[in-house]
């Protein structure tokens, strides 16, 4: 029986939190518990989990998941579920490596050999995206995503939406598909207009047209446009997801594997979505462990649509990118819009532990940006 001997975590640049679990036979698994802008909170949660789970059977992944969910009285939310994700992903990696198989073999086996992917362009204050889109096309991408707008007032000038339309038209002129992320920064009076003016140019989807705290508003906007509605990065469990499926307000679900409790919950959420004919396109602007975990689940998921990649995303500053911290970064090479499914055991990536330990020394927590409006008011970022 492989018991958990140690649980360690590493804060690494640009903004990631890695978890390493070792069993008493020396087997190792890696997970990711990144929660952008709230690193210290997740670290505190992990400290309590270390005390609880050292000595438990590392093979009992579901038992550990349920223990974390049900015995804490308070449960769910981004901090608890991100910390749980780090443990869950690491336990799946450890178990599959010990058995010498990819994780997807433990999830029923693969249904595809490669996965469609997209990359970011533009940044938080998107400007000229045409050159960036051209660069992505050279990299092998056929689809991109970009922020729809800068910050907006609750009721802003309709002309503030014009640039978003022009950016979409520019990317489409290259023969590429583009998702438009409203980022929850667009309030309903403007979101209704933006959804309508984008529709003739056929975006791949519009993401978070409103924050998920406004389910009725999202449902209303979904009735105003034929463009697919995507959301899910700020939903943290199958219970959070359920009302959006039941009301038919979402077409593409975007759970973040680092924010929903890991591989175990991602598989369950994907199965729920399939029953409502909703596609899965996992949110993942994070590190290589998170992406590898998504790939393992999506390899075995029938209703998978497309996977977000953080390669070259505007948050990856200081020299670290998706290809950092691993010995086999070539697995992220994109060919005609797809990446190949990894064949190695566990997550299919080989962590460079020496680099992880070195760069975690003195690593500062990432702080979320913010927008201040012309009147000095705080605006949604």
TrEMBL record:
<dbReference type="GO" id="GO:0008869">
    <property type="term" value="F:galactonate dehydratase activity"/>
</dbReference>
<dbReference type="InterPro" id="IPR023592">
    <property type="entry name" value="Galactonate_deHydtase"/>
</dbReference>
<dbReference type="InterPro" id="IPR018110">
    <property type="entry name" value="Mandel_Rmase/mucon_lact_enz_CS"/>
</dbReference>
<dbReference type="InterPro" id="IPR034593">
    <property type="entry name" value="DgoD-like"/>
</dbReference>
<dbReference type="GO" id="GO:0009063">
    <property type="term" value="P:amino acid catabolic process"/>
</dbReference>
<feature type="domain" description="Mandelate racemase/muconate lactonizing enzyme C-terminal">
    <location>
        <begin position="126"/>
        <end position="228"/>
    </location>
</feature>
<dbReference type="GO" id="GO:0034194">
    <property type="term" value="P:D-galactonate catabolic process"/>
</dbReference>
<dbReference type="InterPro" id="IPR029017">
    <property type="entry name" value="Enolase-like_N"/>
</dbReference>
<dbReference type="Pfam" id="PF13378">
    <property type="entry name" value="MR_MLE_C"/>
</dbReference>
<dbReference type="InterPro" id="IPR029065">
    <property type="entry name" value="Enolase_C-like"/>
</dbReference>
<dbReference type="InterPro" id="IPR013342">
    <property type="entry name" value="Mandelate_racemase_C"/>
</dbReference>
<dbReference type="InterPro" id="IPR013341">
    <property type="entry name" value="Mandelate_racemase_N_dom"/>
</dbReference>
<keyword id="KW-0456">Lyase</keyword>
<dbReference type="InterPro" id="IPR036849">
    <property type="entry name" value="Enolase-like_C_sf"/>
</dbReference>
<keyword id="KW-0460">Magnesium</keyword>
<dbReference type="Pfam" id="PF02746">
    <property type="entry name" value="MR_MLE_N"/>
</dbReference>
<keyword id="KW-0479">Metal-binding</keyword>
<dbReference type="GO" id="GO:0046872">
    <property type="term" value="F:metal ion binding"/>
</dbReference>
<protein>
    <submittedName>
        <fullName>Enolase C-terminal</fullName>
    </submittedName>
</protein>
């Amino acid at each position: 029986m492989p018991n958990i001997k140690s649980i360690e975590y590493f804060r690494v640049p640009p903004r990631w939190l890695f978890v390493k679990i070792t069993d008493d036979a020396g087997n190792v698994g890696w997970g990711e518990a990144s929660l952008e802008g709230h690193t210290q909170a997740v670290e505190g949660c992990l400290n309590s989990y270390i005390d609880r789970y050292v000595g438990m059977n590392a093979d009992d992944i579901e038992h550990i998941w349920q223990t974390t969910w049900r015995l804490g009285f308070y449960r769910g939310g981004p901090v608890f579920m991100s910390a749980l994700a780090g443990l869950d992903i690491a336990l799946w990696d450890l178990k599959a490596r010990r058995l010498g198989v990819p994780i997807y073999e433990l999830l029923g086996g693969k249904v595809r050999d490669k996965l469609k992917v997209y990359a970011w362009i533009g940044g938080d204050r998107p400007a000229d995206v045409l050159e960036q889109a051209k660069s992505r096309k050279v990299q092998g991408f056929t689809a991109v995503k970009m922020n729809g707008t800068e910050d907006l007032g609750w009721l802003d000038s309709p002309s503030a939406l014009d640039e978003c339309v022009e950016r979409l038209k520019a990317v489409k002129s290259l023969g590429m598909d583009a998702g438009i992320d409203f980022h929850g920064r667009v309030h309903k009076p403007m979101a209704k207009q933006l959804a309508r003016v984008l529709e003739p140019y056929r975006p791949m989807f519009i993401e978070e047209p409103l924050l998920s705290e406004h389910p009725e508003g999202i449902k209303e906007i979904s009735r105003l446009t034929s463009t697919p509605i995507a959301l899910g990065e700020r939903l943290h469990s199958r219970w959070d997801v359920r009302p959006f499926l039941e009301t038919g307000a979402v077409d593409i679900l975007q759970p973040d594997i680092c924010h929903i409790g890991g591989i175990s919950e991602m598989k369950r959420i994907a199965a729920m979505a399939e029953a409502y004919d909703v596609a899965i396109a996992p949110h993942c602007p994070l590190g290589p462990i998170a992406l590898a975990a998504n790939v393992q689940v999506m390899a075995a998921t029938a209703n998978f649509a497309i996977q977000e990649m953080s390669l070259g995303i505007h948050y990856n500053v200081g020299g670290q990118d998706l290809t950092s911290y691993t010995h086999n970064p070539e697995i992220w090479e994109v060919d005609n819009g797809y990446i190949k499914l990894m064949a190695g055991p566990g997550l299919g990536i080989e962590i460079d532990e020496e680099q992880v330990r070195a760069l975690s020394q003195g690593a500062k927590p990432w702080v979320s940006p913010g927008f201040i409006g012309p009147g000095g008011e705080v605006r949604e970022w």
